[in-house]
Write a structure and sequence with these properties.
CATH topology: Immunoglobulin-like
Structural class: mainly beta
Number of helices: 3
Strand order of the largest sheet: 1-2-3-7-4-10
Strand content: over 45%
Oligomer: single chain
Number of strands: 11
Radius of gyration: 15 Å
CATH architecture: Sandwich
Largest sheet: 6 strands, mixed
Shape: globular
């Protein structure tokens, strides 16, 4: 499984990398709404104005991920997220442009493999289609935790 995760994170297919983006107007900022494989997403949150703009649009997305340092809860950016569907196909590959990544995913089961530095973290995501959505707070270590740097979880 480790080989599969590492290979998929490092070698995405060309079709996964083709995205489109349009400005997403908010009161504080113009965020870039992107579209890939029928998944719309937005990432950002650097600085107080952009963080406020991200929080303002959060409920428009059914999956909301927040990346923080596990040692001091400071915001993290440049986090690589590879999202797999239930068939283990890559449906999204994105580098966060701030501590927030919000996505609209179709109903189903997903596996998010998150890489920050040399650390890989794996989490499952189930989108049920209800209005509540899914909120994930990912506390990522900024120093290696073990020899293989792989952390798995629910």
């Amino acid at each position: 499984m480790r080989t599969f995760i590492a290979a998929c994170c490092l070698m995405p297919s060309a079709s996964v990398l083709a995205t489109t983006s349009v400005p997403m107007a908010t009161a504080q900022s113009a965020l870039q709404l992107r579209q890939l494989n029928d998944i719309s997403y937005v990432t950002g949150g650097i600085g107080s104005d952009e963080a406020a703009a991200m929080r303002q649009v959060a409920r428009q997305f059914n999956v909301r991920i927040h990346f923080v340092d596990s040692s001091d809860s400071s915001a993290l950016s440049d986090v690589t997220v590879t999202l797999f569907n239930a068939r283990r196909e890559i449906v999204l590959l994105v580098l966060s442009e701030g501590p927030y990544l919000y996505m609209n995913l179709p109903r189903g089961n997903y596996r998010a493999v998150v890489r920050y530095g040399g650390i890989l973290v794996s989490r499952s995501i189930t989108v049920k289609g209800d209005s509540a959505g899914v909120d994930l707070l990912l506390r990522l270590p900024t120093v290696p935790v073990g020899s293989d740097g792989l952390i798995t979880g629910r």
